[in-house]
Design goal:
This protein has about 210 residues and is an alpha+beta fold. The protein contains six helices and eight strands, in the order αββαββααββαββα. β3 and β4 (about 80-85) form a beta hairpin. It starts with 10 loop residues before the first helix and ends in a 6-residue tail after the last helix.
């Protein structure tokens, strides 16, 4: 049976997202390791379906300033991916790539912003490639866009985009270990409901 909301997904559907998360995690760790020239490991991801307020509570304070990389999916799967970057993650990346750190998000210059967009793109692409390899679907990605705002404002973007379809978000969370430092990773994945049904049909989880 087709679903109309994320929270109607069966155990098999959630297992699918976990499998995407596991493959994407391995791919992103490998790609980041190559980019940074450092060993990068990542814990097994945790997949949750959360409401807007639940997601904010899970990630922190609604007025906390964060950065996020947004990429839109199109093609056979439509939707968006949002990777949240906090200051400790940003500084670990910048210290490796550029031997520098920042004290405030608004100190980011053009070169630093470009580097973070590339990191976010690598991570998001790893998960999207996992979807493609599992289901043999074609997915196009937009140019990554970085935003700096309060957490509540950042998370309002996917809700404005897809709130007419669902008031839930799919969150894939885990921890990167880079250069001996443990850094939290949070990726929001919001395919359109029609695309999610199509994906589950392709994998035999639901009947068309």
């Amino acid at each position: 049976m087709k679903i109309t909301r994320y929270d109607e997904m069966s155990g098999l559907g959630l297992d699918l997202i976990r499998e995407i998360g596991s493959i994407g995690t391995g791919n992103s760790a490998t790609a980041l390791s190559s980019m940074l020239g450092k060993t990068v490991r990542m814990t097994l991801p945790d997949v949750q379906i959360l409401g807007y307020n639940e997601a904010i509570k899970f990630l922190g304070d609604p007025e906390e300033i964060v950065a996020a990389i947004l990429v839109k999916m199109s093609g056979e799967i439509n939707g968006l991916m949002l990777f949240v970057l906090k200051l400790d993650f940003i500084n670990q990346v910048l210290s490796i790539l550029m031997k520098e750190e920042i004290e405030d998000y608004y100190q980011l210059n053009v070169l630093e912003t470009s580097a973070l967009e590339e990191v976010g793109n690598i991570i998001i692409s790893s998960y999207v490639n996992a979807i493609s390899s599992l289901s043999d679907v074609s997915i196009n990605l937009s140019v990554p866009d970085i935003a700096i705002n309060m957490l509540g404002g950042i998370l309002s973007v996917p809700m404005v985009e897809f709130g007419y379809q669902t008031d839930k978000m799919m969150m894939i969370s885990g921890q990167f270990i880079i250069g001996g430092k443990v850094l939290h990773s949070d990726l929001l994945m919001m395919p359109e409901i029609q695309s999610l049904n199509f994906l589950m049909e392709k994998l035999g989880i639901i009947n068309g």
